[in-house]
Protein backbone atom coordinates (compact mmCIF):
# COMPACT_ATOMS: atom_id res chain seq x y z
CA UNK A 1 0.00 0.00 0.00
CA UNK A 2 1.28 3.43 -0.93
CA UNK A 3 0.07 6.80 0.36
CA UNK A 4 0.27 9.83 -1.89
CA UNK A 5 -0.47 13.46 -1.10
CA UNK A 6 -1.51 15.09 -4.37
CA UNK A 7 -1.41 18.88 -4.40
CA UNK A 8 -2.28 21.52 -6.97
CA UNK A 9 0.59 23.97 -7.40
CA UNK A 10 4.03 23.94 -5.83
CA UNK A 11 4.75 25.17 -2.33
CA UNK A 12 6.01 28.73 -2.72
CA UNK A 13 7.26 29.39 0.81
CA UNK A 14 10.79 28.02 1.31
CA UNK A 15 10.30 27.60 5.08
CA UNK A 16 7.12 25.58 4.63
CA UNK A 17 8.74 23.59 1.85
CA UNK A 18 11.62 22.64 4.15
CA UNK A 19 9.24 21.55 6.92
CA UNK A 20 7.11 19.57 4.49
CA UNK A 21 10.27 17.91 3.17
CA UNK A 22 11.28 16.92 6.70
CA UNK A 23 7.96 15.16 7.35
CA UNK A 24 7.99 13.51 3.92
CA UNK A 25 11.44 12.13 4.78
CA UNK A 26 10.22 10.89 8.18
CA UNK A 27 7.14 9.26 6.64
CA UNK A 28 9.39 7.23 4.35
CA UNK A 29 10.55 5.24 7.38
CA UNK A 30 7.03 3.92 7.93
CA UNK A 31 5.17 3.68 4.64
CA UNK A 32 5.74 4.13 0.94
CA UNK A 33 4.85 7.81 0.59
CA UNK A 34 4.95 10.31 -2.26
CA UNK A 35 4.19 14.00 -2.55
CA UNK A 36 2.95 14.66 -6.07
CA UNK A 37 2.43 18.13 -7.51
CA UNK A 38 0.02 19.01 -10.29
CA UNK A 39 1.15 22.28 -11.89
CA UNK A 40 -1.14 25.26 -11.43
CA UNK A 41 -3.23 26.18 -14.42
CA UNK A 42 -1.83 28.93 -16.61
CA UNK A 43 -3.76 31.93 -17.94
CA UNK A 44 -6.74 31.52 -15.64
CA UNK A 45 -7.95 35.13 -15.72
CA UNK A 46 -10.22 34.28 -18.66
CA UNK A 47 -11.63 31.17 -16.97
CA UNK A 48 -14.59 31.03 -14.62
CA UNK A 49 -14.09 29.31 -11.28
CA UNK A 50 -16.12 26.34 -12.57
CA UNK A 51 -13.89 26.08 -15.64
CA UNK A 52 -10.81 26.16 -13.41
CA UNK A 53 -12.24 23.45 -11.14
CA UNK A 54 -13.11 21.33 -14.18
CA UNK A 55 -9.63 21.62 -15.69
CA UNK A 56 -7.93 20.94 -12.35
CA UNK A 57 -10.33 18.06 -11.79
CA UNK A 58 -9.30 16.45 -15.05
CA UNK A 59 -5.65 16.68 -14.02
CA UNK A 60 -6.41 15.29 -10.56
CA UNK A 61 -8.37 12.33 -11.92
CA UNK A 62 -5.66 11.57 -14.47
CA UNK A 63 -3.00 11.61 -11.73
CA UNK A 64 -5.00 9.40 -9.37
CA UNK A 65 -5.95 6.74 -11.89
CA UNK A 66 -8.66 4.19 -11.19
CA UNK A 67 -7.23 1.76 -8.64
CA UNK A 68 -6.38 4.01 -5.66
CA UNK A 69 -8.83 5.27 -3.06
CA UNK A 70 -9.20 9.01 -3.51
CA UNK A 71 -9.64 10.96 -0.26
CA UNK A 72 -10.32 14.69 -0.51
CA UNK A 73 -9.17 17.22 2.04
CA UNK A 74 -12.37 19.21 2.21
CA UNK A 75 -14.02 21.46 4.78
CA UNK A 76 -17.13 19.25 4.65
CA UNK A 77 -15.14 16.11 5.38
CA UNK A 78 -14.96 14.03 8.54
CA UNK A 79 -12.93 15.56 11.37
CA UNK A 80 -10.71 13.30 13.46
CA UNK A 81 -8.60 13.53 16.56
CA UNK A 82 -5.03 12.43 15.90
CA UNK A 83 -5.73 9.09 17.61
CA UNK A 84 -8.87 8.54 15.52
CA UNK A 85 -7.01 9.50 12.34
CA UNK A 86 -4.36 6.88 13.19
CA UNK A 87 -7.14 4.29 13.44
CA UNK A 88 -8.55 5.53 10.12
CA UNK A 89 -5.13 5.10 8.53
CA UNK A 90 -4.74 1.62 10.02
CA UNK A 91 -8.04 0.57 8.39
CA UNK A 92 -6.96 2.11 5.08
CA UNK A 93 -3.60 0.36 5.22
CA UNK A 94 -5.14 -3.02 6.08
CA UNK A 95 -7.28 -2.80 2.93
CA UNK A 96 -4.10 -3.00 0.87
CA UNK A 97 -5.30 -0.35 -1.58
CA UNK A 98 -3.22 2.69 -2.41
CA UNK A 99 -4.58 5.91 -0.94
CA UNK A 100 -4.32 9.33 -2.54
CA UNK A 101 -5.15 12.35 -0.38
CA UNK A 102 -5.83 15.44 -2.49
CA UNK A 103 -5.51 19.11 -1.63
CA UNK A 104 -7.33 20.95 -4.39
CA UNK A 105 -6.85 24.34 -5.92
CA UNK A 106 -8.13 27.65 -4.56
CA UNK A 107 -11.75 27.02 -5.59
CA UNK A 108 -12.06 23.43 -4.44
CA UNK A 109 -12.96 20.37 -6.49
CA UNK A 110 -15.05 19.73 -9.55
CA UNK A 111 -18.13 17.54 -9.28
CA UNK A 112 -16.30 14.78 -11.18
CA UNK A 113 -13.64 14.67 -8.43
CA UNK A 114 -16.30 14.57 -5.70
CA UNK A 115 -18.03 11.75 -7.58
CA UNK A 116 -14.80 9.72 -7.76
CA UNK A 117 -13.85 10.26 -4.10
CA UNK A 118 -13.97 7.39 -1.60
CA UNK A 119 -14.14 9.85 1.29
CA UNK A 120 -13.38 13.32 2.60
CA UNK A 121 -11.29 14.44 5.56
CA UNK A 122 -11.34 17.86 7.20
CA UNK A 123 -8.37 19.06 9.21
CA UNK A 124 -10.43 21.71 10.97
CA UNK A 125 -13.55 23.84 10.77
CA UNK A 126 -11.14 26.75 10.37
CA UNK A 127 -9.84 27.79 6.97
CA UNK A 128 -6.09 27.49 6.33
CA UNK A 129 -4.03 28.46 3.33
CA UNK A 130 -3.42 25.63 0.89
CA UNK A 131 0.28 26.03 1.65
CA UNK A 132 -0.26 25.42 5.38
CA UNK A 133 -2.63 22.49 4.81
CA UNK A 134 0.19 20.64 3.05
CA UNK A 135 2.36 20.87 6.14
CA UNK A 136 -0.48 19.98 8.50
CA UNK A 137 -1.40 16.92 6.45
CA UNK A 138 2.09 15.44 6.20
CA UNK A 139 2.59 16.08 9.92
CA UNK A 140 -0.68 14.32 10.77
CA UNK A 141 0.24 11.37 8.56
CA UNK A 142 3.57 11.15 10.35
CA UNK A 143 1.86 11.46 13.74
CA UNK A 144 -0.54 8.66 12.79
CA UNK A 145 2.37 6.39 11.89
CA UNK A 146 4.12 7.06 15.21
CA UNK A 147 0.88 6.37 17.09
CA UNK A 148 0.40 3.08 15.24
CA UNK A 149 3.99 2.11 16.03
CA UNK A 150 3.71 3.01 19.71
CA UNK A 151 6.35 5.72 19.50
CA UNK A 152 6.43 8.69 21.88
CA UNK A 153 5.87 11.52 19.36
CA UNK A 154 2.17 11.92 20.26
CA UNK A 155 1.11 12.66 23.83
CA UNK A 156 -2.41 12.07 25.11
Q: Can you describe this structure?
A:
There is one protein chain. By secondary structure, this protein is α/β, with parallel strands linked by helices. The protein has a single domain, classed as SPOUT methyltransferase, trefoil knot domain (Alpha/beta knot, 3-Layer(aba) Sandwich), CATH 3.40.1280.10. It has five helices and five strands. The protein has helices spanning 14-27, 49-64, 82-95, 111-116, 130-148; strands at 3-8, 33-38, 69-79, 99-103, 119-122. The chain has a five-stranded parallel beta sheet, with helices on both faces. Strand 1, helix 1 and strand 2 form a beta-alpha-beta unit. Helix 1 runs parallel beside helix 5 and helix 3 (82-95) packs across helix 5 (130-148). The chain is globular. The two termini are 28 Å apart. The relative contact order is 0.23.
Which descriptors apply to this entry?
156 residues, 5-stranded parallel sheet, globular, alpha/beta, 21% strand, Alpha/beta knot
